[in-house]
Amino acid sequence: MSQTLLPFILFALVASISPGPTNLLILAHGARQGLRASVAPILAGCGAAAAVVLLVGLGLGELLVRHPLAQQLMSWAGALWLSWLAWRILRSAGQPLYINADKPLDALSAASLQVVNPKVWMMAVAVIGVFAAPALPVWQLALVFLLIALPCMTAWALLGVGSARWLQVPARLLWFNRGLAVVLLVSAWATLLG
């Protein structure tokens, strides 16, 4: 095992399991739609994050460093989109879980979210800057990240599924969704403004 693999695994675990916009949306999706309906968004979200790691490692990271305006525009677009998603969650805050008022998170939306998520790009730049080495090529970093991210994001969906019964009480659901919307907003803008 490479000397950098174990530290990278720990980094990927923390980056994947920590609360972030996609994990919060998967939590809400799991509560509303169940685990089976969450599989496609989980696979797409984790695959997109691993693809960002790969693309940054193959040179896109350098391009973004050379063109800070492009990086800033991507960050603002991501924060605005996440704000819109938070608004959707807030707007449906009191609706019963079994009512599908809004379109559920699909695979394309989950993947797109990762592509515009500032947290994913900062994580990918850190991964490549710290862990990429001849003994640990970029494609292996992306693959290991994917293998770690999948069970981490699935845990968020399971947390949502497990909370579904508790959320059958309308007041709890209202506060749960309001809390998710606020945390989603904070996670989107904290990265951008921090």
TrEMBL record:
<keyword id="KW-0472">Membrane</keyword>
<feature type="transmembrane region" description="Helical">
    <location>
        <begin position="142"/>
        <end position="161"/>
    </location>
</feature>
<feature type="transmembrane region" description="Helical">
    <location>
        <begin position="173"/>
        <end position="192"/>
    </location>
</feature>
<feature type="transmembrane region" description="Helical">
    <location>
        <begin position="6"/>
        <end position="27"/>
    </location>
</feature>
<keyword id="KW-0812">Transmembrane</keyword>
<dbReference type="Pfam" id="PF01810">
    <property type="entry name" value="LysE"/>
</dbReference>
<keyword id="KW-1003">Cell membrane</keyword>
<protein>
    <submittedName>
        <fullName>LysE family translocator</fullName>
    </submittedName>
</protein>
<feature type="transmembrane region" description="Helical">
    <location>
        <begin position="39"/>
        <end position="61"/>
    </location>
</feature>
<dbReference type="InterPro" id="IPR001123">
    <property type="entry name" value="LeuE-type"/>
</dbReference>
<keyword id="KW-1133">Transmembrane helix</keyword>
